[in-house]
Give the backbone structure.
Amino acid sequence: MAGPNRRPWRGHMTSAQHHYAGRSRGDRSSSQRPGSRNVELALHVPVIGAAVAPFMAGPDTDTDAVRAADSLAYLPSDPSAAAEEIQRRHEEIGFSYFVLGADVAGALAPVVADLAGR
């Protein structure tokens, strides 16, 4: 992860978007935003596969619509696919922290192990 434009995975800043906001609305990294500083970004991801974190999104959240909108509020439940997507979001958009619901923590533990090795 080292390099001239790569930052390690640390910091404290939260970025929030509507669940149905597609990627194109937030697809510039923090270093490309006008007037930006070298900041770390966090992304709350309430939808993992078909699971919705109850404290992060309403019970009526349509997971199929969130996924179909290619929303940043969605990650696939497959650990390998989730790891690839998290890595892509880090490299292309600049997110360093990902906040997930506790109910998916066990299922996505392999993602943490995979990303820790990169």
Confidence is low (pLDDT under 50) at residues 1-5, 7-21.
